[in-house]
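Course assignment 3, question 2. Fill in each field.
Student: A.L.
Task: Predict the tertiary structure for the chain below.
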Amino acid sequence: MSPADPGGRNGNGALIALFLDMMAAERGASVNTLDAYRRDLLDVASRLGTGGRRLENAATPDLESVLAGFAADGLAASTAARRLSAIKRFYRFLLSDGVRDDNPATPLRAPKQGRSLPKILSEADVDALFDAAAGQPGANGVRTRALMELLYAGGLRVTELVSLPLGAFVRAERCIQITGKGGRERLVPLTEAALDAVAAYKAVRETHLPSEKGKAGKASRFLFPSRTAKGGHLTRERFAQVLGELTLAAGLDPDKVSPHVLRHAFATHLLARGADLRSVQMLLGHADVSTTQIYTHVLDERLKSLVQSAHPLARRADDGDAG
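Answer field:
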């Protein structure tokens, strides 16, 4: 296989395509997840190709050399670990599909990595963003306010937000039904402010529909249609631009604000105000509560205060001081 053609006729493009088909059909992998797997596997195939090996017949030492190459290139441990995950899934697929009778990735171990805390915004920062959104004029401004309210009120992923179907609202429109990663569905209750913002936006929503009838049919299914995007709805990239402009208007650092940072803010602010971890897990759509536990760093001070105010021994000590 030529390194310049890792996925072509002489490479493993057909096997990678079959693997991605399986991930989509059996695991419900999202388009973004499939794209990430494709990029990771093609990179591994290219690295193997420099030594004349292919994904299909690579041995454990070949894959160990690839991992060493990641480290030599200064690849972040988290990125290397993600690519190793793709490798392991790919070879499990080849084994189960009978393409190989062994799994060369089994002995591989991910590089050690510290678990970084999520970037978050303070409640004052979020208020500044919403104040800036309130000053945006016209139909675009009304849409921006609806987008921001739904993103922060619901803790949505950006893909979930921009691709919301018009029919996502249920129970007299006080909740939205979200289909998240792996096809998992969840109901997210909305605040009064979010409901009001969406109601105001619906009054001007038609201004964002394509003028051409053929395109309008597809776009009309989405809460946030696009006049130009092929998918029919507002793109992630366009929303990132909108958020960037809003961040500058709010006087915040654009490098510290992103759609996912607002999702982090949603979770940490809920926990800081007394929400339990399991409820936040359900609202975020995490399959495992261990994923949600990264947000518990915000609970440290609240828990310390709770112990001091509610623990019987703490109260007894206070009584003793008073006497």
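Instructor remarks: Confidence is low (pLDDT under 50) at residues 1-10. Residues 77-96 form the longest helix (20 residues).
Grade: pending
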